[in-house]
Amino acid sequence: MRHIMAKQQQTLLERRYSMLGLFLIAPTVLVFCAVIVYPLISAVYLSLFKIFTPTLEGSWVGLDNYRVLLSKGEFWTSLRANLIWTVGTLSLQIIFGVGMALVLHQNIWFRSLARSLILFPYFISTVVAVLVWKWLFNDLYGILNHLMITAGLIDWPIDYLGSMPNAMISVILVGAWKYFPFVVIAVLARLQSIPDQLYEAAKIDGAGPIARFFDITLPQLREVLVVIIMLRAIWDFKEFDLIFLLTGGGPVTSTQTLPLLVYKEAFALNQMGMASAYAVIMMLIMLGFMLVYIRRTRSEES
Amino acid sequence: MKHTSMLSQGISRRGALQGLAAATAVAAMPIRASAQETTIRWWSPQAAPAQVAAYKAQIAAFEAANAGVKVVFETTSDEGYAPQLAAAFSSGEVPDIVTHLPSFAIQTYYANGLVEPFNDVIEAIGADDYYEGANEVFKAADGNYVGTGIGNSAANMLWLRKDLMEGAGISDAPKTWDELRAACQAMQKAGIYGAPLPYGRNSMTTLIFIGVIHQAGGQVFDTDLNVALDTQATRDALEFYASMRELCPPGATNYSWGEAITAFVSGATATGIYTGRVLGNVNAQNPPIADSVTCVTYPTKSADIPTWTFNDFPSVFIPKQSKNIAVAKAFAASLYNPEGYIQQLHAAPGHVLPVLKSINENPKYQSNAIIQKYPAEVELMSQAAAGGFNLGYESAKHPSNDKAGKVVGSGAIADMVQRVVLNGENADQVIGETSKAIEDIMKS
């Protein structure tokens, strides 16, 4: 009898703990639903309608938006531009970022100042950064063309933003300049936690600087690079303002990435349903990439 | 008297005036009873410091005359107003009055029930005082007016440097494309290009090229608003535009309004294409060439084709969701009070031209230093703009096109220019695909 009562009390206590747990987790769940689940469901829901953006009134079209967008050449050219931009700028960010982090990890003069200044591109507003770069690239007054003409390297100004492949290269370079400090910060933090004994042991074994980088530094950076690549790939894939302000997606659609296409559908053509369909497709592409990426990195680790 | 008939059927001038007066009175009474309770928001993409100062003077005058009313001025941009307004309309948090947007943008909003009819405001301003036909572009399919012009603009004037023309042995301003091309070739020399035509993927390329199609004798839509792009005139326009490419700076492939005016004002190009804002900018930023600057309407393919001036009809309109429609209407009408309106026009002399005859004839308006320095140019722009058109209203025979804003926003015409001129794609195929894209927009 006593045993049964104890069990009942325990159950009651457990129930109360469960209630308390639910109560404590409820705010998080609510916030999660409000900022993640609701917009996600809303985007999928909107993509099934034909909607006029300013009024948000529309009619049910089912999967028609998806059928139309997948049959449009513009989707595929934008996806291609999106992939070129993402792979190009991300690769440069990683190369510049790791390189700069290695330099800043050395015992150089003004190291603290250099570490602060390196963050400047990342902190500066994209609008300001783009204005500065547009002036640098300007055909009539830009310093780049001016210096190259003065040095006798070119006779006529180079059209950096209005012709291909210059436009894509310029956008990729500006993107790499803007975002590589993020890689520097993350890699530098990891570099500082690599035990010196590893390098000392390698030196004793006769390893040179290159061998030490590939055999010690890079493996030690692996985990942080996996996270950096994942985060930056997501952010770069959905980058909008930098590309929109630099080229507007041109020439023609050469630098028009999927986010620019979403913007065009939503606000230039006032087709919010179609824009949502593009956004959902973008999300699925990213999801697919992430699943493959995480699975591969896990299998390599194991 | 002709303009009285412009108002939609069923609303007489007297009725409209009575309605506006009553609405204003009703709106004014609670304003006085509950001071500091009415705030109206004014959006405009025109944000040059002198213009903003003029707007603030108009706001101060209105607030002084209407105790308890506060007007807040907020800027948007030519390329950015569409998303901002879309967000405002969909959220219901709309500005109470919007100015300086092109007329074709308002027609789209009105067709979707988002804009308040403007008939009574036009009557309050004085319909007879407008230049003939000035409000036709704002007439909707139901006969109502969706807004009115706050000014006229002649967006595609050809700007010339008389000193460079003289140096190149050119005596007369070009009237045809061949003459323009020859003049640009003659004036293009080290450091100076012939022209700053826009080839960018933006609205300027679209708007300027629509003018070029008309200057070839063509049109984008026929008078039944069917797409009429697949014509010899469009092919000629593309051929002309391609032939001018070598006479423009390399970066013209990405030019929009800012780059185009800067190129001419700085002296980097021998000709320019812009509104009358050039006059103020040249005098302020490059005085040595100020005495050599003049303008003409943009040349046409041949002398027998009439000129076609692009006037985007900078407008005033009131969103229907505004909670202060009566006050907004009273404020809209007050923008045309001579003192404030003249100050507003003087903030960008020649750029925004008066829509009211009485203002153009007003000695105070004419007394501006820039207007006095360039009387022939300002008069020419005034006439060209008053007889101007845009994609929402391609000719006097065309009905209002409430999908014009979407066509411009889609960038289909700028894409056509880029594909043919920059990519060298087959013009016939590109024109066909562009026509199809515009047809799809018209059906959507």
What distinguishing features does this structure have?
heterodimer; A: 302 residues; mainly alpha; MetI-like fold; 13 helices; 2 strands; 75% helix; B: 444 residues; alpha/beta; D-Maltodextrin-Binding Protein, domain 2; 2 domains; five-stranded mixed beta sheet; three-stranded antiparallel beta sheet; 8 strands; disordered N terminus
Structure, explained:
The complex is a heterodimer of chains A (302) and B (444). By secondary structure, chain A is mainly α. Chain A has 2 domains: 2-46; 72-301, MetI-like (MetI-like fold). Chain A has 13 helices and 2 strands. Chain A has helices at 2-46, 64-71, 73-105, 111-117, 120-123, 126-137, 143-150, 166-191, 196-204, 209-237, 241-246, 258-268, 272-301, and strands spanning 49-52, 57-60. A two-stranded antiparallel ribbon of chain A has the order 1-2. The termini of chain A are far apart. In chain B, helix 1 (13-33) crosses helix 5 (119-125) and helix 19 packs antiparallel against helix 20. Chain B has 2 domains: 2-153 and 311-386, D-Maltodextrin-Binding Protein, domain 2 (3-Layer(aba) Sandwich), CATH 3.40.190; 157-310 and 411-443, Periplasmic binding protein-like II (D-Maltodextrin-Binding Protein, domain 2). Chain B has helices at 13-33, 49-65, 81-91, 103-111, 119-125, 162-167, 177-187, 203-215, 232-244, 257-265, 277-285, 325-334, 338-346, 357-360, 363-366, 369-373, 375-386, 404-410, 412-422, 427-443; strands spanning 38-44, 69-75, 97-99, 148-149, 157-161, 271-274, 293-297, 315-317. By secondary structure, chain B is an alpha/beta fold. The model of chain B is unreliable at 1-11 and 19-35 (pLDDT under 50). The chains are: A mainly alpha (302), B alpha/beta (444).
